Amino acid sequence: MRILLERVTAGYGDRVALREVELEVREGELLSVVGPNGAGKTTLLRVIAGILRPQRGKVYVDGRPASRLSPREISKRIGAVAQDPGTNFDFTVEELVELGRLPYLSFPDRLGPRDREAVERALRLVGLSTLRKRRLSTLSGGERRKAFIAAALAREPEVLLLDEPTAHLDIKAQVELIQLFRDWAGEGITVIATAHDLNLAATFPRVLLLAKGELLADGNPQAVFTPENVRLAFDVEADIGIDTRTGEVTIRYLLPGNGYQRGRDGGMDGDLRHALGEKPDIFGAER
Amino acid sequence: MRKLVAFGVALSLVGLVWAFPVTVADDRGMEITIAQRPERIVVLLPLYAEILMDLGAEGMIVGLADSPDNPPELSGLPSVGPSFSPSLEAIVALEPDLVLGAWGDIRDKLEELGITVLTVGGPGGYIRGIVDIFDAIRTVGVAAGLGERAAALTGTIAEEIVRIEARVLGLPKLRVAFIYMSAPDTAPWAAGRDTPENELILRAGGENAFADLVGFPQASLEELVTRDPEVILTDPSQVGNILESRLLQGISAVRDGRVYGIKASAAISTRVAEVLQKLAELLHPEAFREGGGE
Amino acid sequence: MSLKVFLVLVLVSVGSIFGAILLGPAEIGPRDLFRALFHPDEVSRAQRLILWEMRLPRAALAFAVGAALSLSGGVMQGIFHNPLASPYVLGVAGGAAAGAAAVIASGIGETIPVPLGAFLGALGAVAMVYQLGKRGRAGMSLILAGVAVGSLLSAVTSFILFVSAGDRRLAEIIFWTMGSFVRANWSRVWLLGAAVGPSLVLLWGLGRRINALALGDEGARYLGVDPVRLRRLLLGVTTLLTGASVSVSGTVGFVGLVAPHLVRLLLGPDHRGLLPAAALCGGILLVWADALARTVLAPAELPVGVITAFIGVPFFLWLLWRRSG
């Protein structure tokens, strides 16, 4: 499934969260989306998932305008997991994953053999087959996150959108997830995940860097993670290391007192404002 | 008074011929047909029990709702719960062919179940005064197949009332308030028009200080002081509450010691003439000394 | 849901109804019930009346009201993500009572207009609470709005009945604000049954989608579920159920809160199992609450709302305490 965003501007009421974004994603790509809070990461996922209509610009899916597709049609092809998906309701893993089949069901939403198969497969893909009867509250953070991802996988999507899938997970769980994403991308599933950890994001072959609603950089980690880009987007000084053998990128933040002096070239805020041609968004945080 | 006598005479004429089925009107103005002489009557209000006793028909009663005003002679009968909220089931279990004095949900349900219910008086079976009592006696009498005895009973009561009224006729009318006060210095409930209390005051030779009100509204203490009644009537258990009210010390009735206890529920009774007599004596003791008057 | 639990609940429901109709001021033992069932000629007319025209419709009505309110409560807790939601707590029942009282006071009629008035009143209350509750961010604001609107509407009900119901006013006020099954008869049972039956099927069929709502609006949208439309439909159904039950029995509080919770503890939160089981459980609870209301002070009768409040309020407080703790 090919996704194309053409000069997309989107937001909530008067607040513009995403500005003039141009983006093309091909089948089986593995993308990470980074940027400070309020940069528009979640909004970008919402626009791609079709649950937020762009105010201006167009989204195309396989060359057809996404606005022509019903939400149900889109949700069959795009599986998405919201940021920090949680619920007051203590479902079992199986009950949760079955929900993923909803786009294919109609009243009274009974699962057919085909649906059961898809649920099985999704459970297997995240490795939770044996925990299916467990309630969410009895799982570890990583397992719970996998259960929600399995619900997205259960509809056998062509694109998987994950908002901060690794947040609050321990390192082992993070590594496991990244490995799973790579496997799925290999099977032709496009994975787009937002991340806060730049080093984690740098393990994705393609990175989108958002700042103040604009797409600042788009490319492989080496191209995106330059000291200038990091400074512009995050207002942080960083050293970028590139492993000459593997091409692997590592980002090291420079803290004041570690040989870094802030204000050397007149302060970040001024630069950033200049670069983006707008006032800083004092409210910052996304919804 | 002459009207009352005429009323009594008319009633006795009606009661000459008696055969079931009979049709009577109830408090809602509905025609109630009683197919045959009732044998099992359940009584929910004390007035009806008293009427049946006075008519010599207490043997028809098979069940009775509890009330402090019930005739003590009937205390051995099965109870169907308190008079203000009787039990539907207890009534039905007694297999009555007539239920007297039911109203509200209980009446609706009994009628739904095909049981004949007879209630007279104002809306909801409320007895507003002597005319309603007569109506109850007459109607219950007809329903029980004892119309003649009922007519005689109303005649006797009417005569007694006329005799008492004649005694106080022409005497100066006292300003009387009939109030209920649950504790000293609290706002009283005052009897206005369309209440048995109001009628008692008028027939005993007084005028109601709260005649501009209807029913039993709660009046303020201030209003009571302003209207300054010469006599205050209340339930016997509440006389103390009035005498002990600091705020009422200045009004005429309290100053003159004319606060009397009188049980109004006893007037919703075939004994209404006795209550009226007592009240008239309290208001106009001069009229009753050495058998003056007639 | 496990079929076994469901079967047990059905059996307990039937058992409760037949157990409850053995209780009452008039002596009727299991043997009389057996005879009345299989040899109706051998029991007296009074016993037949008491069993089939008084106790059975009453138990059936209590059961149906319990089921309706518990269904509503279960759905409301799901769509508001708030375990404290119920028709009574959110003021919906109070709105229904006010609507019914207004219709009675206007003297239009009984059979159709009263339930209709109850439904419109409930709808008004839902709209008010929903709008007020949306303003605050905290989960509590919905409950606070519900309590406020509920108290206001209960005062409105009392006022309307006080000025209009004449000498029946006290009885009417107690009926509509405390709830009672005194007015039970078969036509009321059928009226409510006609609302509960189809609603139960509909809600059971929507169970999975209600589960999706429990994931939050964004989560539901990602599943192709339109949360706004679904919530509107569900609110409509719960309002109908609440209005219908209030119009036959006044406002009986707390059943709609307690039953869904008991079931959630037993079966978990999956609404496909939760809702039917909560309906049965609420029915059972209310049948016994009414049996108590009829018998503790027999032959006098307590408003059933008194009993459910005695059970429900401590439960409500326990939920609050558990949530904050």
Key phrases:
heterotrimer; A: 287 residues; alpha/beta; 12 strands; disordered C terminus; C: 325 residues; mainly alpha; ABC transporter involved in vitamin B12 uptake, BtuC; 14 helices; globular
Would you kindly provide a written description of the structure presented here, covering whatever features stand out?
- Chain A has 287 residues and is an alpha/beta fold.
- Helices cover 32% and strands 24% of the residues of chain A.
- Chain A has ten helices and twelve strands.
- In chain A, strand 7 (159-162), helix 6 and strand 8 (190-194) form a beta-alpha-beta unit.
- In chain A, helix 3 packs parallel to helix 5 (141-153).
- Chain A is globular.
- Chain B folds into two domains: 2-158, Rossmann fold (3-Layer(aba) Sandwich); 170-288, Nitrogenase molybdenum iron protein domain (Rossmann fold, 3-Layer(aba) Sandwich).
- Chain B has a five-stranded parallel beta sheet.
- Chain C is mainly alpha-helical.
- Chain C has a single domain, classed as Orthogonal Bundle (ABC transporter involved in vitamin B12 uptake, BtuC), CATH 1.10.3470.
- The radius of gyration of chain C is 20 Å and the shape is globular.
- The A-C interface holds A 46, 49, 51, 71-72, 74-76, 79-82, 85-92, 95, 98-100, 102-103, 105, 107-109, 135, 152, 161 and C 78, 81-83, 204-209, 211-212, 214-216, 218-219, 221-226, 268-270.
The Rg value of chain C, from CA coordinates, equals 20 Å
Supply the CATH superfamily name of chain C.
ABC transporter involved in vitamin B12 uptake, BtuC
The beta-strand count of chain C equals 0
Q: Could you say what the CATH topology of chain C is called?
A: ABC transporter involved in vitamin B12 uptake, BtuC
Biggest beta-sheet profile of chain A: 6 strands, mixed
Summarize the main sheet of chain C. none
The coarse overall form of chain C would be globular
How does the overall form of chain A come out from the CA principal axes? globular
Assembly annotation = heterotrimer
Q: What is the straight-line distance between the termini of chain A?
A: 28 Å
CATH architectural label of chain C: Orthogonal Bundle
Identify the most extensive interface between protein chains: A-C, 33 and 26 residues
What is the N-to-C order of secondary-structure elements of chain A (H for helix, E for strand)?
EEEHEEHEHHHEHEHEEHHEEH
**Main structural class of chain C:** mainly alpha
Number of DSSP-assigned strands of chain A: 12
